[in-house]
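Mods, move this if it's the wrong board.
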Amino acid sequence: MRDIEYSKSAVEVLDILNHTNKEDVVRIPQSFIKFLTDISSKSYKPKFNHEQPINGFNLRKQTKELLGFIYITWWCDKEEHEKYKNVIHKNNMKKEKIEETYNVNDIFKNKKLTQHSNQILQSGIPEACCIHNKKENKIIQYENVIEKNIVEYKKENIFKRFLNKILSFFSITKGDKI
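Not the wrong board. Structure tokens:
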């Protein structure tokens, strides 16, 4: 599926490059253009109106990625290159932070509290927050962890609730025998 999408995108990029200023196309290495030609779909034909600006085209996501790669790698100057490099780095950091925060595999593992909470704990730590590590013969101080567990909620059906209500009038519990 991904190969098909990129092969169609390669056709679109080659079509756009065919209608781009030749001075700009020469700055792209022939090896990359050959790569695009090799992976391009033989059956797909893009239908772009090259009379209008490129932002009016209905481009695929992968086509935009390839054109962005071409622009950042071969067409922009050093200042723009550094600017885009910083933007990409910031976006990657945000993505990593989001993945770390909302990691599906770590949902039910213990999470440490914030730095502020740790400072509060260090000022007056009760003994219950410490444990003795016998292997390394050290006392380990917990940083106050929060456990997250799945809680199973069972709602009694209406008949059991009705029966329990009647039994409660007679002060009879489930364990008592009549």
